[in-house]
Design goal:
The structure is a homodimer. Chain A is α/β, with parallel strands linked by helices. Chain A has a domain of 257 residues: Rossmann fold (3-Layer(aba) Sandwich). Chain A has 19 helices and 15 strands. In chain A, the strands form 4 sheets. In chain A, strands 1-4-5-15-10-11-14 form a 7-stranded mixed β-sheet, sandwiched between helices. The first copy, chain A, has a 4-stranded parallel β-sheet with strand order 8-7-6-9, with helices on both faces. Chain A has a two-stranded antiparallel sheet with strand order 2-3. In chain A, helix 4 crosses helix 16, helix 11 packs across helix 13 and helix 16 crosses helix 17. Chains A and B meet through helix 8, helix 16 and helix 18 of A and helix 8, helix 16 and helix 18 of B.
Chain lengths: 458, 458
């Protein structure tokens, strides 16, 4: 067998993040949800430290990673790049080589700490004493809970009520790292109290949890708000994944990937693996870059490019992105991290520029692909990256059919040890696919029909 | 800060396991539970392939690791060695350097695949088509489930009934890797059917599950039986941990450890980290080697060295070891992997030779130590290695008190992502310590009073 993995020494950690925005024409700017005017740094200052705001609007391609962040990254980075030779054999492939970057060895078991750590660092540097955030099933909350205590910050997490009750283990992880976790809606905010007055038994929603976290941060000058995906600076922090992968592929003796694949919900792990290769593509390299999304929440494949709220309730700015409409409610598929009504503006922009394309698959195919991968490679993937694996299988089949020798790279963004209920449901035949009905799409998009038009380039 | 970790290239995987038995005087041999005569290879042949039996009784210090096993080891090995500098700072230490080997990145999240893979390989090489085993909470079963399918073997796991019902996620992991999992007692064996006849609602026990697995293997010529700890060959397979650590410590620039610490239940992870350093100690090096066990199941600290059944019911051979008596039933502490009534014969033998010593701690102190470690180092330990961490803290305090500069090495044998209920119980104040009452010790030891005497050396 060939070499299985390349592990980089910690001295090889990237020194700079890569900002794709600097290499693309300017997209339509975010708008204030009240005034519909472009959002300025001063609008964001109550919620974010200025160093993060400047990253968010930066036109520089390279941003230096602070030394303190690089030191913390060493706790789990550089992450390994593996050749999936046993998986290739299981698929009966010849002439296709599959590589994957594995982010599941981090403190919370996914790629999320890559941005949680610098966000916590900048907040501490800015003199903030606590960070408020929301979390759905808990991936993001547990990453931020770990990161905040590294810098002596308090962490307050508003967790969607139904997950708080049904998925306690992520809550326990956050509490173990020292965070305070509220079941949202909570009695800790005006928003939460109002929701509880209407319905004391409310199960909550991500939109409501965002609103509570934003209120918390906005009403406390020592607090900041933090987001785990979607925004430009979050995507930039994740580019350490692709930057390391590039060096590791070279160490494997590969000239580079022919195909790069990541699953896409908000867009951050996809951006992390693909943006550094997009830079090469912009410079002329022939690379196919594919975002894989669930058929039940097909933002890039069936959404429209339009201005829409970043959240579900209109507290967040209007951003130009691919969206299914902010009140689209995806079915309760197990890949909770892919259930977002929109897509990161920068990923959407890259699709408009013809640099990436998207595919959508149902969860039954994805779980089958994930289990085949786990048996071969020994890593049980979280439900989200099983979508990437399904995309890899399809790309490999296309390559074989065309007779081309190809190198496929994908991001295995997290392990599935907190997702065993999902595997049990799949193995016991209790899961089904949920394609989005056309009528539901039309209904949800009608809600944003009166928003300003979003030009692809300004 | 100093360097955080040393990651070895896969070409640096050890080529040989180390067999401590070859460097010690002969201990008292295992006895057949019926005849009380020494067990010969032919007695074991129905259950184990001959290559494993020969390792079990070997007098050679070095055993070559088959190339196929080394290839499979590369899936997760070499594992990293970390300097716990943030943990040292959290403890306020000066002059004490703490290093840990991390085995939680394996396919099942613990050190168990280190022996599951070679055991499955040898069984396949021997022409066996399936392996039967028992599992308590599921750590061992999930490692073997992964390993067997690498070599095309079927895997049948008898899981203690109460765990099967209360801890479904490890069962799901085994099933995801393709194993058949029975709730024990099951209707699949005579032993199980007899138990169900007496009590159709039986919650099972590890002893019963062992009996079912052994019956299964003994009555099917194409099947083998497999054990996850205690036996000599299992301990030998685990020495890859310490052999790698030795090379990595040198790469950190350390002359070697002053103290080596592992938690000890059956003894396999402790043996894995410590036996290669025991070889140096036998050759004259000054190294303190400490096995840490739970106060509720204090085999080495409060047990006696005697002949006792390896299992709970007398189907397994009598082995000379430190034991609390085979019908000792430890309280339901969360470190399920440390709840074994005996200790590996080779670990017991090393204690008799004055080469190692043991300490015991209550689970409350251990969870507190584990959480302090998790916050600093970003790895949430399984409940078992929190005992090792507690031992490390005590060793570091002793070193500081004596003014000596010291290097402490310990084994972090698995992550705790399947153990969040334990952390929740701890954080919510629902756990308590269980010291073993003297009367219970006397009662359990009385049951083995008539067994043959076990001389420390023959």
């Amino acid at each position: 067998m060939s070499r299985h993995k390349i592990v980089l020494d910690e001295d090889s950690l990237p020194t700079h993040w890569y900002n794709l925005g600097a290499d693309l024409p300017l997209p339509a700017p975010p708008l204030h949800p009240g005034t519909l005017q472009p959002v300025g740094p001063e609008d964001l200052a109550p919620l974010f430290p200025m160093s993060i705001i400047l990253q968010e609007v930066s036109g520089e391609a390279q941003h230096e990673i602070p030394e303190e962040v690089r030191q913390a990254y060493r706790i789990w980075r550089p992450t390994p790049l593996m050749r999936a030779e046993r998986f290739e054999q299981a698929l009966g492939l010849k002439g296709v080589r599959i590589y994957y970057k594995y982010e599941g060895g981090s403190p919370s078991g996914s790629h999320k700490p890559n941005t949680a750590v610098p966000q916590a660092f900048y907040c501490a540097q800015d003199g903030r004493r606590r960070i408020a955030t929301e979390t759905g099933a808990g991936q993001w909350g547990s990453a931020l809970a770990y990161a905040t205590q590294l810098y002596g910050l308090e962490c307050e997490v508003f967790m969607v009520g139904i997950s708080y009750r049904q998925k306690p283990y992520r809550r326990v992880m956050m509490e173990t790292f020292g965070a305070t976790v509220h079941s949202s809606p909570s009695s800790a905010t005006n928003t939460g109290r109002a929701a509880l007055e209407v319905d004391p038994e409310s199960l909550g929603s991500l939109g409501l949890a965002i609103s509570e976290a934003v209120e918390r941060a906005a009403t406390d000058p020592e607090a900041a708000y933090s987001l785990g995906s979607v925004l430009n600076h979050v995507l930039m922090h994740q580019t350490v994944i692709g930057l390391e992968a590039k060096e590791q592929l070279a160490a494997f003796g590969e000239k580079g990937p022919d195909v790069v694949i990541g699953c896409a919900g908000g867009g951050s792990n996809f951006a992390g693996i693909s943006f550094p290769f997009l830079r090469d593509k912009i410079a002329g390299a022939e690379i196919e870059i594919i975002a894989v999304e669930p058929a039940s929440c097909p933002t890039l494949t069936r959404g429209v490019y339009a201005y829409d709220y970043g959240d579900a309730v209109g507290m967040a700015p209007l951003v130009a992105m691919h969206t299914l409409g902010h009140d689209f409610m995806p079915p309760g598929i197990h890949a909770g991290g892919l259930r977002y009504h929109g897509m990161a503006p920068l990923v959407s922009h890259a699709q408009n520029q013809g640099l990436i394309r998207a595919e959508a698959y149902g969860q039954l195919d994805c779980f089958a692909a994930g289990i085949q991968f786990a048996k071969a490679e020994g890593i049980l993937p979280a439900p989200e990256p099983t979508h990437a694996i399904m995309g890899v299988i399809e790309a490999a089949r296309r390559a074989e059919a065309s007779g081309k020798e190809q190198v496929i790279l994908f991001n295995l963004c997290g392990h599935g040890h907190f997702d065993m209920q999902a595997y049990d449901d799949y193995l016991s035949g209790q899961l089904q696919d949920h394609a989005m009905p056309e009528g539901e799409r039309d209904r949800a998009l009608a809600a944003i029909a009166d928003f300003p038009a979003a030009p692809a380039v300004v």
